[in-house]
Amino acid sequence: MSLAFISHHECQNHRMGAHHPETPERLHAIKDRLIASGMEMLVTHYDAPLATFEQLTRVHDPSYVRMIEKAAPKGEDELVWIDGDTAMCKGTLPAALRSAGAAVLAVDLVLGDKHHAAFCCVRPPGHHAERARAMGFCFFNNIAVGAAHALDAHGLKRVAILDFDVHHGNGTEDIFKGDERVLFCSSFQHPFYPGTGADCDAANVINLPLPKLTGGKELRTAVEERWLPRIDAFAPQLIMISAGFDGHLEDDMAQFNLRESDYAWVTRQARELAVKHAQERIVSCLEGGYELSALGRCVSTHVDELIGHG
Ligand SMILES: [Zn+2]
Fold this sequence. Notes:
The structure is a single chain. The chain is 38% helix and 16% strand. It is of the alpha/beta class. It has helices spanning 25-37, 53-56, 62-71, 92-111, 142-152, 170-176, 216-234, 260-277, 292-307; strands at residues 3-7, 43-47, 80-83, 86-88, 117-120, 159-163, 182-189, 205-210, 238-243, 282-286. The protein contains 9 helices and 10 strands. Helix 6 (170-176) links the parallel strand 6 (159-163) and strand 7 (182-189). The structure holds zinc ion (ZN). Zinc ion binds at residues 165-167, 244, 246, 287-288.
């Protein structure tokens, strides 16, 4: 089975100003790299649907979803700042709904045995969005909307979420901490934005706060010791990945020193666990990654590992 590659052209209509790092060019860079590498031919393309109010409110407060729906400006060049670094333009709401809808479609395709794995090439990202709060470039928590769909609409009992973005997935933790159906694993630079994650005592959350200058060796050791045995014991029926590549050596959003081979390694670990426990089922959603060339290379490597090699 091929890999489902889910995106939508409306994800490129969300803009937060000329100097904002979370740009539409990120998706162009990924797609260019996939074409150049020949990987474009190996995936099946899908357009992301709009997430519904019902799907969003499995993880977000209804009043928060309505607030975001109403906040969008009407003017072409108008920006409404929802948080210090997170703004809405005219095109933001459709993009955010497509991003969350991509995760829902990905879950439907993978659980419907159409594909063993899916990658959601979407923006805005989602893992900082809490139950009732937009922040850190995120409006709706795409991975959480997808996980809740797998649990509530498909009846799964155990979903593991791996988040290797360089920032703590505070939104996903906020939504799922204490929910024993979800095992949430987040690795991140600490201390660093958003400042959370070092003191969570929920049994279903495994945070890996790591110091700046963390490289592949340190990350792999931490993942081998802290994540893999717990995920293995949890025996997830579906593995989801919050795939942020802003910990790359060349990405100056943070101070990790990860390389493509490290993202390949962690993706391979996830795939091996999915083969063992989850009928190979993996859904990955793009989160951060702001150095365009490195982002393209990292996603290409990540998708290659998701496709699997026997
Ligand atoms: Zn990030």
